[in-house]
Structures are given as structure tokens and as C-alpha cells.
Amino acid sequence: MEKIKNTLKKWWRLFALFHQGAFLDRRMAVVRKEAFDINDNLMLLLFGDFIGIPNPMSYYMLELLPLMADELVPWERRIQNRKFILAEKAAQYDFDT
Fold first, then answer.
1. Is residue 97 domain-resident?
2. Is the pLDDT score of 81 beyond 90?
3. Pairwise CA distance, residues 41 & 9, whole Å
4. How many domains, the chain?
């Protein structure tokens, strides 16, 4: 009886791991991607002039720099490592060909 109980526990653990890998990780990846997209949009709006996007309100946006300084360097690195930012945004809204 103990052997059957241990076997069932083992299969249940394997099923739980499969469920986590198949469903929960995908959902968390979608949530994480959405959070990065929202953060990217905010940072582009505030500090787009750092990567070459002109912003007429950049003087006023610099007042927010001390509050966002910790997030600026990782964001800039993440944006510069992307090859096709416009293609990513187009695919996000189903405009891909």
C-alpha cells in the first residue's frame, strides 16, 4: 500500500510540474511582457530624447529624473538591445505580415 501511495505522490508531483510549466509560466510571461511594454512606453514618453527621439518637453521631464534614475540604465540597455522595436509593436497589435 505504501508503494502505491509513493507512486501516486510521484505522479501527482510530475503532473503539478507539468501544469506549472505548460500553463502558469506562459501566463506569467505574458504578464511580464505587458509590464515591460507599459514601462517602455512610459520611459519613452519621459526620456526618449536620451535615445534620439525629440521631445519638446524634455526640460520638464528632467525634473522626474531623480525619481526614475534607478530604472533608466536597465531600460536604456533593454531598448538598445532590441533590433526591431517597430516590428515588435506592430506584432503586438496584429499588424505583422
1. no
2. no
3. 46
4. 1
The pLDDT value given to residue 96? 60
Rounded CA-CA distance 42/36 in Å is 10
- Whether the predicted pLDDT of 97 surpasses 60: no
In-domain check, residue 15? yes
Please choose, from the candidates 80, 43, 38, 86, the residue with its C-alpha nearest in 3D space to the C-alpha of residue 64: 43
Q: Is 94 left (phi over 0), alpha (psi -120 to 50) or beta?
A: left
Burial class (CB in 10 A: 0-12, 13-18, 19+), 54: exposed
Rounded to an integer, what is the distance from CA 19 to the centroid of its chain? Answer: 22
Measured distance CA(67)–CA(33) in Å, rounded: 23
